Amino acid sequence: MRWLRLLKIVTVSLRYGLDQMLIDAGSRLRFAGLLRVTRLGRRFDAPRAVRLRQALEALGPIFVKFGQMLSTRRDLLPPDLADELAKLQDRVPPFPSEQAIARLEAFYGRPLAQVFARFETQPVASASVAQVHFALLPSGEEVAVKVLRPGIEHIIANDIALMETAAALLERVWSEGRRLKAREVVAEFSKHLGDELDLMREASNCSQLRRNFRDSPLLSVPEVYWDYCGPTAMVMQRMHGLPISQVDALRAQGVDMAALSRAGVEIFFTQVFRDGFFHADMHPGNIFVAPDGQYIALDFGIMGTLTDVDKNYLAQNFLAFFQRDYKRVAQAHVDAGWVPRGTRVDEFEAAIRAVCEPIFDKPLKEIEFGRTLLRLFQVSRRFNVEIQPQLVMLQKTLLNIEGLGRQLDPDLDLWKTAKPFLERWMNEQMGWRALRRKLAEEAPGWALTLPELPRLAHRVLGRAAEFDVTQEPAAAERRHRGLMRWLRVLCLLVATLIGVELWRLFGS
Fold first, then answer.
1. Would you say 160 and 186 are in contact if contact means Cβ atoms under 8 Å apart?
2. How do beta strands 277-279 and 303-305 pair?
3. pTM of the model
4. CB distance 134 to 143 below 8 Å
5. How far apart, in whole angstroms, are the C-alpha atoms of residue 348 and residue 376?
6. Confidence of residue 34 (pLDDT cuts 50, 70, 90)
7. Is the CB of residue 97 less than 8 Å from the CB of residue 123?
8. What is the CB neighbour count within 10 angstroms for residue 486?
9. Are 59 and 9 in contact (CB under 8 A)?
10. Backbone dihedral angles phi then psi of residue 145, each to the nearest 5 degrees
């Protein structure tokens, strides 16, 4: 089976001239002479990027998803390849309803008629990994049932194994293969696919995002019905709305498109900077709009997470870019530890300035925010900066959000919408507000530790005395008094801070 799949991959690669793309890349390639023989009698009129996209489409849905992921790695790919791969669409014919029913009945262990009051056999959505059917629970709730494709685990395992073999071979025979981190890219793709194959993980992502936006007027997230969920099946609330791509229908429904585009930007930055947990697959097919103009999020297989370090890096960069403070941008990379040792910050700053200064000749509303972040990644590539996977996902999401926002409202000034949010977040991370928040977080732990300080101090002083036997008694006594003085000051300071914070929390 695997040999047949490998034969198809080789055949498709030759048909679309992918072997010639390696030679045309202009880098040292072992066995290049052998590949040049295959060029005889073959001419390709289409550009290399188009041929690569067509080859991935011919190889099937798993390779299409791989191409989609590759399109986000603009720190590794030339712009023409990344732009063309971004056109890939995960459109897969649905599998027979009988197979979906059989897989669900195997999971639930009983006939589907005993699980749902009604189950619609016609799927409403289909992708490479799963498809969705509408149903009705016995308790009366309308739900959407997501079920994995039969045999998809075996198909993915075979394709990933072949990709890993190809990536290892590419790094051995092509000098650029190591710089492109072929094996690392395949490993990253394998991880994402593995996450999508576990629908319990997707259900937990959905539940977390719903909790983050509970009672939000901006975003609605379906409820998960946990009693019906498992690794191969996910049941969630059915959401009613129009796909966000149906702009004319939304206008006819009375939706304020300018307000809708601004709300999308606010939702994105709320996910990123408030929660550090964001929907990383926000293409139009995964977003609906309710009649009242509220966003509806769907499909939670790919989520991104950010640490406080990541969030600080992003906020510093966004604000510094639009203040033309390129030294601050370069310093943010140094502070994050992503610049290789020995990199001169002033040279990094000059490279960033050379790329970004022409952008700011335009009005702010004409500056493409996502492209600005992309340019940063391109400069980083020259300086061998390690681009973090979570930031690559973020960049892809930001490009989706910005493109969607400007489709809804061509006059969208993304910077004007985002700047107040970023400045507010930065203010909350610094100064007295941040100190108070940290105290509130740490106060319960301090309250438990404080009563133990005398015992711990006595133990430390006892051990110190053991090492003071060689000292003069007067010197040991002075040291003991000094330690006790500092201990009293420390206890008083900690007690005061805890008291102030507890009074603020519970006394007002």
1. yes
2. antiparallel
3. 0.74
4. yes
5. 11
6. very low
7. yes
8. 11
9. yes
10. -110, 120
In the chain, what is the greatest distance between 2 CA atoms, to the nearest angstrom?
Answer: 97
Lowest mean pLDDT among 3-17, 78-92, 166-180: 166-180
Per CATH, the architecture of 92-155+170-239 is what? 2-Layer Sandwich (3.30)
Which is nearest to 281 in space by CA: 380, 394, 368?
394
Output the six-digit token pair for 391.
């930031």
Distance CA 21, CA 39 (A): 11
Residue entry with tokens 């601050």: 328
Name residue, tokens 């309710």: 290
| Half-sphere exposure for 206 (CA within 13 Å, toward CB) | 27
Query: Mind telling me the catalytic residues?
Result: 281
Measure the CA–CA gap between 26 and 38, rounded to whole angstroms: 17
Q: What is the C-alpha to C-alpha distance for residues 153 and 157, in angstroms, rounded to an integer?
A: 6
Do 377 and 395 form a contact (C-beta atoms < 8 A)? yes
Look up residue 295 and give its amino acid: Y
Cα-based distances in Å from 465 to 468, 474, 483: 5, 13, 12
List of residues 6+ apart from 309 with CB closer than 8 A: 336
Pairing mode, strands 125-126 and 142-148: unpaired
Cβ within 8 Å of residue 506, ≥6 positions away = none
Buried b (16+ CB within 10 A) or exposed e, 159-174: bbebbeebbeebbeeb
Q: Are the CB atoms for 288 and 249 separated by under 8 Å?
A: no
Asked if 132 and 125 touch (Cβ cutoff 8 Å), the reply is yes
Distances (CA, A) of 33 to 12, 26, 344, 459: 21, 13, 41, 75
Tokens found for residue 33: 């002479």
Of 52, 76, 72, 49, nearest to 63 by C-alpha is 52
Distances (CA, A) of 133 to 99, 147, 257: 12, 8, 30
Would you state the pLDDT for residue 490?
63
Establish how many alpha carbons lie within 13 A of residue 266's alpha carbon, considering only the half-sphere containing its beta carbon. Answer: 16
Per-residue pLDDT tens for 157-174? 888 888 888 888 777 776
| Two structure tokens written together for 374 | 């992309």
Q: Find all residues with CB under 8 Å of 350, minimum gap 6, and list them.
A: 326
**Dist CA 392 CA 73 (whole Å):** 7
Query: In this structure, is the dihedral angle defined by the CA atoms of residues 392, 189, 273 and 340, taken in order, positive or negative?
Result: negative
* Burial state string for 326-338 with b = 16 or more CB within 10 A and e = fewer than 16: bebbbbbbeebeb
